[in-house]
Amino acid sequence: MEIEVKSQSDNEIVFIIRDAEVPFVNAIRRMAMVNVPKIAIEDVNMIKNNSAMFNEVLAHRLGLTPLVSNMDVIEGLPLPEDEDYEKHPGIGFSLIEEGPKEGEETKVIYSKHLISSDPKIKPVYDTIPLVKLKPGQSLNIEAFAKVGYGKEHAKWMPTTVCTYKQYPEITFNDDANIDYDCANACPRGILKADRRSKVIKVLDIEDCSMCKSCVRASQQNGLNYINVGYHNNDFIFRIETDGSMSPKEVLLQACDKLGEKAENFISFVENGG
Predict the structure, then answer these.
(1) Which one, 7, 91, 140, 254, has least CB within 10 Å?
(2) Separation of alpha carbons 234 and 164, rounded Å
């Protein structure tokens, strides 16, 4: 198996996996989505909330606010499978805000107003709007964040996008007349008709969604000039995170979790169940 990283940023990584099977690639995807630990607000105590937003809705927004969750931060915190998980109070947060000043109609409360008991564990973004306060309204909230897994709730899912597709393959029928119109049918513009050279060029094969719009257009013209397929054992994999941790860290953690599950399964079989 070979892995080639095509692009990488703070919140996204795209890489190619070659010589792999679909079950293996899909297992990595599932591990990344639901088995990588992440920190999120779990318990919310509404001491005072006379805003227009219901307590349940505001608590839901707090839970979905991404918190810094890299492995350096999570290290030392109890995981859901640990015995002391329920006894651990979690990382405390407070949100104490008053309505707007005189002369102002509303005041927007953002994620930056959440004050954490641990300066390392804080909202990833400062500008996530939580609630609007009008004159005379106020908030007094205490919340507690804990480590969890995406299989229990979406707020513990580190990935916003985690998907793969088989590597596209485009071939042309040399026995048929060149169908320049099929290039115009491509919705992503990856085909270019070069009438001077009498060829159709493929600009970016990896951007092909295999929708086969070009194939259908060629068939309607009665030419059957172009064919779209894929490589059975090659995949383009993409991971995008909410900023709580880097996509590379999510991938490494997913692979570690998959390895642990494989070892546990082997041990289970060897020990006779």
Answers:
(1) 7
(2) 10
